[in-house]
Design brief:
320 residues, Helix Hairpins, 7-stranded mixed beta sheet, 10 helices, globular
């Protein structure tokens, strides 16, 4: 995923210098294909990244466009907040974020509370101004060329905000049968421990982590591993769900970890139970499917019970 704030450049994926000759770049590409091919013990997700990198710089015309775009090709991504400010459906006007929608789209949307990615964006803007503007306003703190040069901790904040917003858009499209709380404080004693999303629908009640570490991720013994993984994301999300469940006197159906499509080898990978909760790692494009059908072993939630769980959560949810 070369438009992520954390993604390596095409040259870095190919392990070649930006000023390498076309012949040397082609040799590097062929070597990386052999190194990463799944049939020879390589990582399938990395193998796909190598092919995508070659698509970006494999011809003189493509390479020239990529270099002119500061490593983003002909079309740089937009990192600015999506959608106008204003309260999302069901939040009483308290949210500063609205899922973007076409003007003619009148379908009922999921009931939404809180601001997805809001805390991460606030932290990003504060630190970016300190780093690039020395506290002054920047003309465009989301300029892709500026973002690419920023320290990794700043890019990680922005990547997480974008991931949370992408999940919010997907959940919003599920319709009025779903309720979602964003940026939920998991433990009032620990302000840094939050749940990115709490999603309630007919298929169950789920704690959802929206993650983007800028590269392929794998599972080992029920936990995420990868070059950009920090700490124990699955264990932390499970702990947050259990703490909130106790406070609200509800039981979570499971935990869902949402990752960029290019960073996982399969779209849906159900891990089993971690500390009593079902866990699945899901590609972003498969999230709606999982939320509609539920995790294997999770029971459906009926109308009266759905209302009761929503009421209990509303009474205790606090936003991070």
């Amino acid at each position: 995923m070369f438009d992520s704030p954390l993604s390596a450049s095409a040259y870095e994926v190919l392990q070649s210098a930006p000023d390498a000759t076309d012949d040397d770049l082609r040799k590097a590409y062929r070597l990386r294909l052999r190194q990463t091919h799944p049939d020879t013990g390589g990582d399938a997700a990395v193998f796909v990244q190598v092919q995508r990198a070659w698509d970006l710089v494999g011809t003189p015309a493509a390479r020239a466009a990529y270099d002119r775009g500061h490593g983003f090709g002909a079309h740089a991504p937009s990192y600015a907040p999506a959608g106008p400010a204003g309260g999302a459906s069901g939040d009483g006007g308290s949210s500063g974020w609205r899922p973007p929608r076409a003007a003619h789209d009148t379908r009922p949307r999921a009931r939404s509370f809180g601001q997805p990615g809001g805390r991460r964006r606030e932290s990003y803007l504060t630190l970016m101004r300190e780093w690039a503007g020395r506290g002054a306003d920047l003309p465009d703190p989301y300029d892709p060329a500026l973002v690419r040069t920023a320290p990794r901790e700043l890019r990680r904040l922005l990547a997480d905000a974008l991931a949370e917003e992408a999940t919010a858009r997907a959940v919003g499209d599920l319709g009025m049968g779903y309720t979602v709380w964003h940026d939920v404080a998991a433990d009032p004693r620990d302000p840094d421990h939050k749940l990115d999303h709490v999603i309630l629908g007919p298929s169950g009640l789920y704690a959802v982590l929206s993650e983007d570490v800028g590269g392929p991720i794998r599972l080992r013994r029920g936990e995420l591993i990868g070059d950009g993984v920090v700490g124990a994301p699955i264990a932390d999300t499970v702990a947050g769900a259990r703490a909130l469940g106790r406070a609200a006197r509800v039981r979570f159906s499971g935990v869902i970890i949402v990752l960029p499509d290019d960073d996982v080898a399969q779209a849906i990978e159900e891990v089993g139970k971690v500390r009593g909760l079902l866990v699945a790692v899901v590609a972003r494009s498969a999230l709606q499917t999982v939320l509609r059908r539920g995790l294997t072993g999770a029971r459906d939630i009926g109308g009266n019970e759905l209302f009761d769980i929503r009421t209990r959560l509303q009474q205790v949810v606090r936003f991070a």
